[in-house]
Amino acid sequence: MTTAPLQLFNTRTRRKEDFVPLQPGKVGVYACGPTVYHFAHIGNMRSYLFGDLLRRTLARAKYDVQHVMNVTDVGHLQSDADDGEDKMMLAMRREGKSPWDIARFYEEAFFKDCARLEILKPQVVCRATDHIADMIAMIETLLQKGYAYYGGEGGNVYFDTQKFSAYRDFARLVDDPNACARVEEDSHKRNPSDFVLWFTLAGSKYPNQVMQWDSPFGRGFPGWHIECSAMAMKYLGERIDIHLGGIDHIPVHHTNEIAQSECCTGQQWVNYWLHNEFLLLDQGKMSKSAGDFLTVQKLIDDGYRPMHYRYLCLTAHYRKKLKFSYESLDHARAAYDTLCHKAEEYREKRIVPQKTLRSQVTVDKIDAHMRSDLGSPWALSVLWDAVRSEDINPGEKLFIMEAADSALGLGGLQLDRPELTPAQQDLLTQRDAARRAKDWAQSDALRAQLAALGIGLKDRPEGSGWYIADATLFHSQEGRKP
Ligand code: AMP
Ligand code: ZN
Is the CB of 215 under 6 A from ligand 1? Predict the structure, then answer.
């Protein structure tokens, strides 16, 4: 086991810091999840791949990780500030379906993409629409403490940014002179940077909002930012170790989350804030509104495996911009497929993974790179040096490859790995939960259930790695394409 310290770049301090959890051995992680009004694009998926690398790294460092992610199915307006219409309403008009149906459809599509990319499912996935009461309770606390106010007839409930003196500190860390300036003009606000906690039907510019609830402040719907604060607190408590999101969330969404949460509890909320940089296209940003965005499915239709995209993301550090091109995806495909061929060749020869001092030292180096602010490109190069080395024998190489698979999520290094159905995926998630809870009877029962479906398990720190143990059983399941 490697002893390298776990270091993470903390946006709060703009420094790489040793990670110290609130409670020894345990880590609570909150990740801002998808807004389910459309398919996630591959840029969004880069954000969740980064979260998955953190989760694996923490688990391999023997932390018990509680990973919570929200699903935004109401309240996220066209702009991250309070401007525009709820994205769910846009989707409703685009597709002629109810926003509830739209949310479920894209939530399922999102988790399917996650599974295809070997992103481990968070232990808690919480939908905003299931937590309206928690948000209302938090807004009531903010009102009672004087940090929030009602903007009067035709207004909404706002957070008073003047009352939180540290409001601009977090965003200033990214040297953005316009931080917090992207706010909508609204005469009901006391200060231009105040943001909405609860949209009343009269205060919202879009009174045809279909998703609406009663509240002590009038019928309406929650603002996007309060969703994350309320759900993170519900599942992780008043203080949390790590909060994740894309870099675009720093100036508005996370700044607002901090303001609400810290004013609510009177203490620092999050110890480590981690943000991923963007995936860019040659022509700049991907835009869902313009409809010109790449999805995991599009890459599959173009003849790639989702793992090729995951591998491409691993080749760039999460805090560096990554420019996407099909050429770079081709390079990733060639490299990933070569690794798979190697691993398959060893397995066919019935070579057994061999733990020796030499193979363990190599694995320790991979872990050390990951523990140094998730240095996946350097972890990959250690893997490649080992695979190419003439001094390391095949058994040792297979041992190193399996550890790299656990640390980096390399899809079992299997060329013909099929997709799991959501039901099979759920069984895996349940099995991991049982194992984590040390409920061995349930864990064994689920292992047997998976075995009956032809799925074998490799127990690992980050959760179960799976493989096809019996192809006949796996392919004979009802409804599965041969
Ligand atoms: P959304 O579903 O729009 O709320 O975004 C989901 C996540 O994807 C957020 O954490 C965003 O910061 C992140 N994100 C959005 N666009 C990109 C991109 N091009 N590259 C990387 N992350 C992104
Ligand atoms: Zn959030």
Answer: no
